[in-house]
């Protein structure tokens, strides 16, 4: 996307979804409406930029969700992922797991428009959080309040990104990786639910189609019809496929319906069915006993609170790719 044990979360915001009131976590120092006096138009400005980009490219939602997660999961939500390398330092961008991360151009465009109205006021970290929320809402997902007040970090080190989960992680490994960041098994399930608009390359799961665990056969846990479909599609490792085969541009619960039907493409997604702690949540989301919109908004907010810099810590960058 530190632990929640190291950063106390005050549960103070209420979010209304289809008649259900959900509590949203807020990290100390962040609050909804942080810029209400200093840059009152920041949210409409950011949403306008997201809407413009999304009109040209419907995969923007997936790009921003991945960018936000890969930033928050390393040093916290401090926009350290946006920093370019320098002559003396390789930044997080250089890590292999971040090689295909994109959306920097959208964040830069939003930052430039915000700076024209409110110079030196709004952090790149907050713009990432707001833009991600807007892309979710514009793709049919929840439109939830985002606590702001984050400041930008000054440190970005390539090897720090080693903590990012592997697409082939098993259930226990993924649960532990998220727990190390103060996130629960439910957060794991919901944040992987961002794959509802995700795209991956055949190289990440090809072994499941042709030589699972050295057997020379496909993974028997994958739906045979999906195996045949992907075997035809994956003519090379670079071919891209949608992780949600039903509504790939819409943020919804269809992804979890497919998990229950053994139609997960990545190992890390299918592993959610293996561990009882996560399988129960997957089934609740699929059958509707756990409201997807409310739960997804809650977990996105939890992630957005990870190790934030507030007050006088960090800085407000003039441009998102370099420290001041």
Question: What is the compact description of this entry?
Answer:
The model is unreliable at 1-27 (pLDDT under 50). The chain contains 12 helices and 4 strands, in the order ββααααααβααβαααα.
Helix content percent band = 25-40%
- End-to-end Cα distance: 24 Å
Order of helices and strands: EEHHHHHHEHHEHHHH
CATH architecture of the largest domain: Orthogonal Bundle
**Beta strands, count:** 4
Bulk shape: globular
Strand content: 5-15%
> Compute the gyration radius: what is it?
19 Å
CATH class of the largest domain: Mainly Alpha
Q: Name the structural class.
A: mainly alpha
Low-confidence stretches: 1-27
Predict the CATH topology of the largest domain.
Answer: Peroxidase, domain 1
Largest sheet: 2 strands, antiparallel
- Let me know the average pLDDT: 91
Oligomer: single chain
Number of domains: 2
GO molecular function: heme binding; lactoperoxidase activity; metal ion binding; peroxidase activity
EC number: 1.11.1.7
Protein name: Peroxidase
Domain Plant heme peroxidase family profile: 29-324
């Amino acid at each position: 996307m530190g632990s929640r044990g190291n950063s106390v979360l005050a549960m103070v915001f209420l979010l209304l979804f289809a008649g259900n009131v959900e509590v949203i976590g807020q990290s100390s120092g962040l609050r909804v409406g942080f810029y209400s006096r200093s840059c009152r138009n920041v949210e409409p400005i950011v949403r306008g930029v997201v809407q413009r980009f999304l009109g040209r490219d419907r995969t923007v939602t997936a790009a921003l969700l991945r960018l936000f997660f890969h930033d928050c999961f390393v040093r916290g939500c401090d926009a350290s992922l946006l920093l370019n390398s320098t002559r003396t330092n390789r930044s997080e961008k250089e890590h292999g797991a971040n090689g295909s991360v994109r959306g920097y151009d959208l964040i830069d465009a939003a930052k430039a428009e915000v700076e024209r109205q409110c110079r030196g006021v709004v952090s790149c970290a907050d713009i990432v959080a707001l833009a991600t929320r807007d892309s979710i809402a514009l793709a049919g997902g929840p439109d939830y309040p985002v606590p702001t007040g984050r400041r930008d970090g000054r440190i970005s080190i390539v090897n720090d990104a080693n903590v990012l989960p592997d697409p082939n992680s098993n259930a226990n490994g993924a649960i532990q990786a998220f727990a190390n960041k103060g996130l629960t098994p439910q957060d794991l399930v919901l944040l992987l639910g961002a794959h509802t608009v995700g795209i991956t390359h055949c190289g990440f799961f090809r072994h499941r189609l042709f030589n699972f665990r050295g057997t020379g056969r496909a993974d028997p846990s994958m739906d045979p019809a999906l195996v045949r479909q992907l075997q035809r599609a994956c003519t090379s490792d670079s071919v891209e496929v949608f992780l949600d085969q039903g509504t790939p541009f819409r943020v919804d619960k269809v992804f979890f319906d497919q998990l229950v039907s053994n139609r997960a493409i990545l190992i890390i997604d299918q592993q959610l069915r293996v561990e009882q702690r996560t399988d129960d949540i997957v089934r609740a989301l699929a059958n509707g006993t756990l409201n997807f919109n409310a739960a997804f908004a809650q977990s996105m907010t939890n992630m957005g609170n990870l190790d934030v810099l507030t007050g006088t810590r960090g800085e407000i960058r003039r441009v998102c790719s370099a420290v001041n």
